[in-house]
Write a structure and sequence with these properties.
With about 500 residues, this protein is α/β, with parallel strands linked by helices. It has 2 domains: about 210 residues, Rossmann fold (3-Layer(aba) Sandwich), CATH 3.40.50; about 270 residues, Ribokinase (UDP-N-acetylmuramoyl-L-alanine:D-glutamate ligase, 3-Layer(aba) Sandwich), CATH 3.40.1190. About 35% of the residues lie in helices and about 15% in strands. It contains 16 helices and 17 strands. The protein has a 10-stranded mixed β-sheet, with helices on both faces. Strand 13, helix 10 and strand 14 form a beta-alpha-beta unit. Helix 2 packs across helix 3, helix 10 runs parallel beside helix 11 and helix 13 crosses helix 14. It is elongated. Bound molecules: ligand LZDS7PUF and potassium ion (K). The site of potassium ion has 11 residues, from strand 4 and strand 5. The site of potassium ion (K) has 11 residues, from strand 4 and strand 5.
């Protein structure tokens, strides 16, 4: 699914109206019905409901929801911004409510807000492209101080600018949940913006799919149907050679577990063969814990000192648990600069590269880098905000023909053609030791199975998150450990095979 900007969404609105031969009112009514259908499930039956409405169409949505909730027997208190220029559909919605239900407010007003209410925030949506005036803080503070049980935003938390970096001092209504229409808004996917809404839920309001080609973008939100489009069909004549031979290089004394996790993930993802390359201390652990894998060992007991020949392997991951012994570091650099085939580069291999000047020139083209935030910072330096971080990484990805995976709640895959794919699967339980090792194993396995680096990264990140989502149906997120993720990769594949 494409992620487009606010201006493009407005154009999409207009094209939908034209192509589907409907009015803007009809479109708003669709939005209102979808919102109401969802919001009723959020509201405890007796909770007071306060709906804050602005003067544009976001306010129109809020007024429409108020009308629908009243039809269902809910009592609502409606506050609407006093204005001279309401949008047409906003006014029409006002007229459908009896005038004594509407409380018009000014920004400097003290409002009478009941405590413990559910607040629906429909003041601003995608219609703002610059920060709200500071005067708005008074209204947002009053909302917060009224101790609401929850705040539900329509389309965006009011004051949130979807396509530009938010600054902490911009006035904004912070909400628990945002129902956003049709497509995620870019800013909602950035970790630094999590303070504005705990979660967003997509509502499909039937914007015309046939015109979506018109909108150019470098950003995508990856869901099941996107993945299904490029999943390889398996031939009945397949044999273990078809599914590739994956090599996992890493481990050091006390950190062999990371290689067990990576290798297990590669096997569970479908590699025909998996071989590990560790220091000698890894041999017994691997042969005992993962009998399906084969082990090669370095001459050294505690850390890798010589790096292997990799030509016979179709997928290679390097760096997990590798440590940063000076000999390992030096030999890794000598080794990597002579490699030609794509690698999945993780953990200490990234830390080692970060110590080199112009480190990206040492990495074979089409490699995949999987840094967590600290590793990324070591590689690319500081960034002002998540927009800048993405831009920096994008430039490096294109210039050096690499794929970067920026891990986070919505993990982003930045490919060598400058596109960014945000992942939609995963949960907080997956923020656990070894989760990243598992991801590297999945991606190396997929490269081994013949996916290119971008496909393997997008699919790998999605599968990893999906396996985690299946895992937390059986295991509490607190108790989820990395090896559980691999145990549920099979469920993730079953889900992708299915058509529901
Ligand atoms: N396709 C869809 O997604 C649909 C969306 N719908 C809803 O409509 C809103 C967008 O409505 P719009 O009227 O364009 O915009 P807003 O309601 O968000 O806000 C517009 C008003 O805000 C004023 N404004 C703009 N910038 C500022 C600012 N910095 N400070 C204060 N006020 C600002 C603006 O006033 P002007 O006088 O400046 O014009 C507008 O009055 C979308 O988010 C959805 O909720 C449809 O319901 C269905 C289809
Ligand atoms: K809103």
């Amino acid at each position: 699914m494409k992620i487009i900007n606010s201006k493009q969404i407005k154009e999409w609105d207009q094209l939908t109206i034209k192509h589907q031969n409907i009015s803007s009112w009809d479109l708003m009514e669709r939005a209102v019905l979808k919102l109401t259908e969802n919001i009723v499930n959020d509201i405890p039956s007796k909770a007071p409901i306060i709906i804050f409405c602005g003067k544009g169409n976001n306010g129109g949505d809020g007024l429409g929801v108020a009308r629908e909730l009243e039809k269902l027997g809910y009592k609502t208190l409606i506050y609407i911004l006093k204005s001279e220029n309401y949008s047409e559909d906003n006014l029409k919605n006002q007229q459908l409510l009896s005038s004594n239900e509407l409380h018009f407010f000014n920004l400097n007003e003290e409002l009478q807000l009941p405590e413990n209410s559910v607040i629906i925030d429909a003041i601003f949506g995608i219609g703002i492209n610059q920060p709200l005036d500071d005067d708005w803080n008074s209204i947002f503070n009053q909302i917060e101080k009224s101790n609401p049980t929850q705040i539900i935003s329509i389309d965006l938390p009011s004051g949130f600018i979807a396509d530009l970096p938010m600054q902490k001092y911009f006035p904004c209504c912070k909400s628990n949940k945002t129902y956003t229409f049709q497509v995620p808004k870019l800013g909602l996917l950035f970790p630094e913006n999590q303070i504005y809404t705990d979660e967003f839920i997509l509502l499909d309001i039937g914007l015309e799919q046939n015109v979506s080609n018109e909108f150019e973008t470098d950003y995508y939100f990856i869901q099941k149907n996107d993945i299904q489009k490029f999943l390889k069909k398996i031939s009945k004549f397949s044999h273990k050679g078809t599914f590739g031979h994956t090599l996992i290089i890493g481990g050091s004394l006390g950190k062999i577990g990371s290689i067990v996790l990576t290798a297990k993930a590669a096997l569970k993802t479908g590699s025909g063969l998996v071989t590990t390359y560790t220091p000698q201390c890894g041999l017994n652990i691997l042969q005992t814990n993962l009998i399906e894998s084969m082990s090669l060992v370095d001459d050294s007991e505690k850390q890798i000192e010589y790096f292997p020949e990799i030509k016979i392997y179709q997928g290679v991951a390097v760096g997990m648990g590798m440590g940063q012994h000076p000999t390992t570091d030096a030999n890794f650099i000598n080794w990597i600069k002579n490699q030609k085939q794509p690698l999945v580069i993780d953990a200490d291999a990234l830390n080692c590269l970060a110590k080199q000047k112009d480190c990206f020139t040492l990495i074979p083209q089409d490699s995949v880098l999987t840094p967590h935030p600290k590793e990324l910072q070591r590689l690319i330096g500081e960034w002002e905000n998540d927009f800048e971080k993405l831009e920096k990484v994008k430039k490096l990805a294109v210039f050096h023909q690499l794929t970067f995976i920026i891990k986070g709640f919505y993990t982003a895959v930045i490919t060598s053609d400058g596109k960014t794919y945000f992942n939609s699967t995963g949960n907080w339980g997956m923020a656990t030791a070894g989760s990243g090792d598992t991801l590297s194993g999945i991606i190396a396995s997929l490269i081994g199975q013949g996916y290119n680096s971008s496909e393997a990264s997008i699919l790998g990140v999605y599968l990893h998150g999906l396996a985690g989502d299946f895992a937390v149906k059986k295991i509490h997120p607190h108790s989820l450990i990395a090896s559980n993720i691999s145990d549920f990769i099979s469920e993730a594949y079953f889900y992708l095979d299915s058509n529901f």
